[in-house]
Amino acid sequence: MKLNGVNRVVLIVLDSVGIGNAPDAAQYGDEGSNTLGHISERLKNLVIPNLIKLGLGNTGDRLFLKKEDKPLGAYGSAIEKSAGKDTTTGHWEIAGLIIEKAFPTFTSGFPEELIRSFEAKIGCRTLGNKSASGTAIIDELGEEHVRTGFPIVYTSADSVFQLAAHEDIIPLERLYEMCLVARQLLTGDYSVGRVIARPFEGRPGSFRRTSHRKDFSLKPFGKTVLNKVQEAGLEVIGVGKIADIFDGYGITQSIHTDCNMNGVDKTLEALAGNSSGLIFVNLVDFDTHYGHRRDVEGYGKCLEEFDRRLPALMSALKKEDVLILTADHGNDPAAKGSDHTREMTPILIYGHQIKAGINIGVRKSFADIAATVGELLNVEAPSNGNSFRQEISL
Question: What pLDDT was estimated at residue 381?
């Protein structure tokens, strides 16, 4: 047990569950965005009582959720300080890194010279090379891919190079190899945040993506709270795509997941163990399946599904554990387009040693979470962020 009584922090990122446009949202074309608020406004029967009891409705002004008089945990919100609104940027800042210059995007497709270099190295042509929805692009080009064997290259408003291929046409290991080739090429002005393998299966007219997605991220340019925890001799267990987002840097154990509920299952299994340190979890379905597809109803059901599992997570906490729920950006399913939205994020903190009903206010950076995790675990703090441990600890 640590000196301040905290042995383990469980940090869960509800991917894209933003709570209203950030102060600089207009610079990103996202003024008026509000992922959670627009979902709860449109779905009058949204049932998320456990998140509400923790204080989720208290974290923003226009969430159309009940505000608890006595939340079970501490609560607040955070503004992203880094430039950008993508997964890598959000997660890196949560872990203590501030990105001054946004990762490059290629919404009109990648430069011809880059694509030609990539094709030369993988030994075949490619299809696509444009900005598109992941499900739409395989509907459009999947049949041609199956016929030719050429992988599909696409991107989005995010800083990503995505490579889609049918698992029966390009085996997974070969697809991952191609992604590594792309990762090696994407340097300098082409340094996108992530290269993503997007395998799919099925027949024309019914193609569907599989759970074998793999992200190839840039290595963080500095040490995060993950490294600080690891260097202190503690464990850093990444659940979901956490290890991919950080390129394995600072991770002692990586646990793959197939979906949100599998992620909850794996988190419960980790909690049942005797680890000390950090369990860092990403639950991506909110973003991938519903935010980008602008599916308000589906997003709402996904929130309800997680809410039903939240009591099990809370009950699984040991006396020395602390649970933190947050998000990495927004992805308003009621907004135009299919891209992330620049939003503030919620922070909910719960545990046997956490004061109930404490409002930590609006934090000026996601990195305040990293500073707090470091202080809770008595490890060296990252260079960015201001801890709120003293405000929340009994």
Answer: 87
pLDDT score of 4: 62
* Alpha carbons 8 and 378: distance in angstroms, whole number: 11
Say yes or no to pLDDT of 73 above 50.
yes
Last residue of a domain, one of 217, 241, 256: 217
Q: List the domain range (segments joined by +) for residue 183.
A: 112-217
Predicted pLDDT at 134: 87
Whole-model pTM over 0.70? yes
Share of the chain above pLDDT 70, in %: 99
Decide the pairing of beta strands 127-131 and 152-155. parallel
Same domain, 89 and 200: no
Instruction: Give me the mean pLDDT over the 74-99 stretch.
Output: 97
Residues 17 and 32 placed together within one structural domain of the fold: yes
The pLDDT of residue 1 is above 90: no
Using CA of residue 292, residue 297, residue 301, residue 307, what is the dihedral sign? positive
